[in-house]
Amino acid sequence: MVPDISTGGRTYGLLAYLYGPGRRDEHTDPHLVASWLPELAPDPGRDPAATLKQLTDRLDLPVLALPKDRRPARHVWHCPVRTAPGDRHLTDAEWAVVARRIIHATGIAEEADGQACRWIAVRHAEDHIHLVATLVREDGRRPRRHLDGIRAQAECRRIEAEFGLQVLNPGDRTAAQRPTSAERSKAERTGRPEPSRETLRASVRQALAGAANDEEFFRRLREAGLRVEKRLAPSGDTLGYKVALPGDRNRYGEPIWFSGSKLAPDLSLPKIRQRLAAGPPDDGPSGDDQDRPRPARTRRAAAPLVDRAAATFMADDDEDAAAQLVGMGELLDALAQTSPASTRCELNQAARAFERATRSHIRAERSDNRAIRSAARGILRAGDAVGRGEDGGAAAMLLSTLVLATIAAVHWHSARGHAQQAAAARQAAWHLRAAYRSSSASPLGVMREQGRQLTPSARRRHANAVSAALPDHANQVLADPGWDALAATLDEAERAGYEPTALLQGVINQRELESADNLPDVLVWRLRRTAKLPATAGSAPHRPGTKAVSVRQGPAEHTDAAGRAVAGANRRPRR
Q1: Label partner for 322 (CA 20 to 30 A): which of 38, 124, 426, 435?
Q2: pLDDT reported for residue 334
Q3: Are residues 130 and 195 in the same domain?
Q4: In this structure, are 328 and 200 located in the same domain?
Q5: Are residues 351 and 256 in the same domain?
Q6: What is the pTM of this model?
Q7: Could you tell me which of 206, 350, 351, 216 has the C-alpha nearest to residue 281?
Q8: Do 330 and 267 share a structural domain?
Q9: Average pLDDT in the chain
Q10: Calpha distance 336→352 (Å, rounded)
C-alpha cells in the first residue's frame, strides 16, 4: 500500500480530475467513501443534485474565512493510496477505514478533534483512493503535519498487516524522492519513457561515476546535454547546482529545474564533495587516444576490486562496507554507459536498482574507496566495449564477480534491517544475471567445445583435480554442462605452468562459493583471472617469471587450443 503526498493550490481543479473520466477513460464510478462530516460533504458522483463547485466550497470554507493575506498559497493536500499489484480489492467500507487511519496518522484530522481540517476520500478505481484535504483547520490554524509522509508510510505498513495485504518494505528516509503524479502524467502526455526526475537522476549519477573533482562532474553534465546552473556565493564559490532536461519547460516556458538534493539525498553538492574528498581516483595513463586502456583490460582489472569489496560485506567494518557499496554503484554506472547494446539495457536497469542499495544511515565519510572508483574511471576512459572476443570474455568475468558481490550486499543489508536496500540489491542481481548470461554465452561456448575435445586422459586428470580441491562439490561440478569449460580452462592453466589442483584450491579460498548460481562458471572466471589467462579461450604459453609448480602428467598426448590431439607439445617430461 503506497501513499504519495503532494500539495497544490486549486481544489476545484483536483476534484474535476478525480470525478472526471481520467486521461484514458480509466476512472469508473467516482464517489466518496469517507469524509470529515458526511452530511456536509456533497458527493457529485452519487448525488445528481450535487456539483463540484459545492464540494469545493465546503472544503475551502475554512480557507476562505481567513483574510486574503493569511491564506496559504498551497492549501490543498493530496494523497493517493494504492494497494500493491496482486492484492485483493478492498470494499468501500474498508477503504473508508484506511482513509480515516491515514488522515489521523498524518495529523490532518486526528480522531475526536472537532476543529481539524476538512477532508474527503474519493474512489474511482478498484485499487486506490485519493485523499483530499484543505490545510486550514476550522479554528483557522494550520495542521501539525510534520513528517506526514513518513507517518503515512508507517500506518500503511500496519494496515497491510491487519488487512492481509502485501507488507511492503519500510522506508528509512534515505530513498530518492519519487516522481509526483503530475510529473508522471506529464511524461505520458509528452511521450517520454519516464518522468524527467528519473532521467536526470540517472544522468547525474553517471556523470559522477569516477569523477576526480566537482569541475569534472559539471563538465560531464554539460557533455551529457543537460542544462546546468550553479548557485554561486558572492566570493564566486559554487554552493550548489540544479539541472534540467532540454525542452522540459513549465507553462510559462521556463526550464523545470531539479537541485541535486531533490534528485537523491546523496546527489547534493556537499554530499558529492564528501564522496570526492577521499582523493581523486587514479587517472592511469593520460594523453591521446592511443594511450587509453583497452576495455577488456579495465574490466579484468575491476574484477578483483569487486571481489575485495564483496569481502568487506563479510567483515565487521560497516563504514568500509558502505563505502564499497558506493564504489560498486559507480562501477555499475560506468558499465551501463560503455557496454555493448546486447547488455546495456540490463546493466542500466541494474545500475538504477543498485543506487538504492548504496544509501543507508551507515555513513562512509572516513573510508577509502578510491580503488574501485578508479576502476569505474578506467572503464569510462577506455570507451565502449564490443560484445565479442576478449572484450566479451572480460565483461563476463567482471559480471560473474558482480553477481556474487551484489548477493553479498543483499545479505549485508538484510542483516542490518535495511529492507528497501536489500530488495534493491536483489533486483540489481537479477538484471546482472541476465547481462552475464548474454555476455558469457559466446566465450563459454568456445571453452565448452574445447573441453569436449580434450583427450579422455586429460579430462580424467582435471576431474581428479576438481575432486581433490572440491570434495564436497565435485559430483555437482562434474555433472554440470559447465564442466567442459572448466576442463578447458584447467588445461590452459596447466600448459601455462600451473599445477591444476593447487591453482583450484587457491581460487576456492579467495571467497565463499555458496552464493554462486553456477559453480563451474565462477571457477572458470576466477581461474582465468588468477592465472592471467585470456578471457576468451586460446593458447596460453608459459609466461616468463611465472612459477611453474610440478605438474603430474598423464600420457604425452595433449590437445592444442582448438582441441586437436598433439604429441606432448610444450609439456614438461613426466616424472
Answers
A1: 435
A2: 97
A3: no
A4: no
A5: no
A6: 0.79
A7: 216
A8: no
A9: 88
A10: 10
